[in-house]
Write a structure and sequence with these properties.
CATH class of chain B: Mainly Alpha
Number of strands of chain A: 0
Shape of chain A: globular
Organism (chain B): Haloferax elongans ATCC BAA-1513
Oligomer: heterodimer
Number of domains of chain B: 1
Radius of gyration of chain A: 18 Å
Largest sheet of chain B: none
Structural class of chain A: mainly alpha
Number of helices of chain A: 6
Strand content of chain A: under 5%
Structural class of chain B: mainly alpha
CATH class of chain A: Mainly Alpha
Keywords (chain B): Ion transport, Magnesium, Membrane, Transmembrane, Transmembrane helix, Transport
CATH superfamily of chain A: SLC41 divalent cation transporters, integral membrane domain
CATH architecture of chain B: Orthogonal Bundle
Radius of gyration of chain B: 19 Å
GO cellular component, one term (chain B): membrane
Helix content of chain A: over 70%
Distance between the termini of chain B: 67 Å
Number of strands of chain B: 0
Largest sheet of chain A: none
Order of helices and strands of chain A: HHHHHH
Order of helices and strands of chain B: HHHHHH
Largest interface: A-B, 70 and 71 residues
CATH topology of chain B: Tetracycline Repressor, domain 2
Number of helices of chain B: 6
Shape of chain B: globular
Helix content of chain B: over 70%
CATH superfamily of chain B: SLC41 divalent cation transporters, integral membrane domain
Membrane topology (chain B): Multi-pass membrane protein
Family (chain B): Belongs to the SLC41A transporter family.
Chain lengths: 186, 193
Amino acid sequence: MPTEWTVRAISRAMLPVLLVLTLVELGSGLVLGSFESKLLRYPSLLVLVPVTIGTAGNLGSILAARLSTSFHLGTLSFSPADDELAGNAIATFALAVTMFPVIGFGAWVLAALVSGGATLAAQTVILVALTSGTILAVLAVAVTLTATYAAYQFGLDPDDVVIPVVTNVCDVLGVVVLFGVVQVLV
Amino acid sequence: MTVRDVAVEAYREALPALSASLVGGLVAGVVLGGMRAELRAVPGLLVLVPALLATRGNVYGSLGARVATALHQGLIEPRVTAGDDRLQAAAAAALANGVLTSTFAAVAAFFLLTLLGSKVAPLPILVGVAIVAGLLSGIVLTAVVVTVVFAGYRRGRNPDTLVGPIVTTTGDVFGILFLLIAVRTVLAIAGVF
């Protein structure tokens, strides 16, 4: 049933979800806080933060939207041999591998031009972005498939549940993966 | 369709929206990179950043999706000047939910950091920043989302495909920009007292 268009009805439908998602996002905030000194020292890494979170969330939400449409059209089956599934997973991976080097280079150039502070080598920032992006693509596919499959098992409409869950989980993973990669590479 | 066809189609369809949000994300990143002094001055602010950005996406993405569905169903006119009651209620609800959730994020972050024994700015500062940032970005995002979805719909575009990229791109940029303005405002006011 669609929500009635009043402030009360909309808030009642949305606020509980928003508050839970906020707690989840604070988890990623704490991870971010744990390497704050490194982020503040190297602005190019700080520039990477919103774009990495955003792109990870977008990769997940686009995949989720496509899978839930295929699911509604009845063209999706949960088998590794499914063309729809495999094709979308490959596209997600390909998007990550083409977007993230651009993100890394963009972050390095912008930080060098605008932000000042200590600079990392361009190839380091690009490598951090590409490594994070590749790991995130694999995780985005796994999370989206799990969430879509769970929604299907519980008889929920994937449009309602999967997209917010996937977007926010991928946001959090974006920060966690960036943290891990920075610990190893910088 | 073969796996290859599916992959090529999915790649082509996603690339423009992702590129737009990439540009938005980088602009947001530059503003965040320029905020290092404020981040140092307000410990705990960086912890809030993902929650505040996600709230913008969740609240105004949902508003956009709601408006898009209503346009498809013919429930509302694609004109801001029509002054539709339902549209006003949806916008007011989005604004209220956005500010409430941001405030909740600030309070929860304060207690979490205090519990963990980390350095954290006073509660009124964090809450003040969250409210000012939530209010300002909410007003601008409501205007942008409604205007662009209406304009796109009148030009025969599917509003469903417009909402995602608009919200992620403008949400990141305005989310961080108004966060910066909010921190500076709150620090200036706190400095007076």
